[in-house]
Write a structure and sequence with these properties.
DUF2913 family protein; alpha+beta; 4-stranded mixed β-sheet; 6 strands; DUF2913; single chain; 2 domains
Length: 213
């Protein structure tokens, strides 16, 4: 019996985004250039049909439903083409190995950009960082030590961030990392958002995406 390959969320998302953009190009060949509103309308209908026909993995169905709803309420403002392009850009270069070194490089970038870097303290309970509003990235030292082994990330790791998320997304893209969207709930560092980094970049939901590279 042959092995059955199970598609990951990352693979399913990249496949969907790549196919959607390819269809936009294919159907527009030889015609007058579409306006952003027309592109958004086409992609919205394409995603609706994709849901009905189950063209893509169930792993991305909730994403598709959300984007269709955004397109219906925002029209061209939903920027579906831009979103799909960002997904392809980020996910096509996301790595699965060497995440510890890449995380350290991201932290170096944050520090060089003027962010406060805090990775030497244990976060026990709820903490407050005296940064006077300075952008900052905080990782519990105990969690960092247990999450990394042999140059790899072996456990989920939470990054507590206060700063421009687009800056963080650009640094993540630069180093082939996929960082989870910011979560304000049950954050252990006051005035920060919790962002998740997973072993093998295996997030189960859409990563933080940079508008530009």
């Amino acid at each position: 019996m042959s092995d059955v390959k199970v598609q990951t969320y990352n693979q399913a998302l990249l496949e969907m985004a790549t196919a959607s953009l390819a269809e936009l190009v294919r159907t527009g060949a030889g015609r007058a250039a579409r306006t952003p509103a027309q592109e958004s309308h086409f992609l919205s209908l394409w995603l609706v049909d994709s849901l009905k026909e189950k063209r893509f993995s169930r792993l991305v169905m909730e994403d598709l439903k959300g984007w269709v709803q955004q397109a219906r309420t925002q029209g061209a403002g939903a920027d579906l083409k831009g979103l799909l392009e960002r997904i392809v850009r980020h996910y096509s270069q996301a790595v699965t190995q060497g995440l510890e070194a890449r995380l350290m490089a991201l932290l170096d970038d944050c520090e060089e950009a003027g962010w406060l870097r805090v990775t030497q303290s244990v976060i026990d309970g709820r903490a407050k960082l005296a940064s006077q509003g300075q952008a900052s990235i905080v990782i519990c030292s105990a969690e960092l030590a247990s999450a990394c082994a042999g140059g790899e990330l072996v456990k989920p790791l939470t990054l507590y961030v206060r700063g421009d998320e687009q800056v963080l997304a650009r640094f993540a893209y630069r180093h082939g990392l996929l960082i989870g969207q910011g979560n304000k709930k049950q954050v252990r560092v006051k005035h920060h958002k919790a962002h998740l980094l997973m072993p093998g970049n295996a997030l189960s939901a859409l990563a933080l995406l940079a508008v530009d590279g």
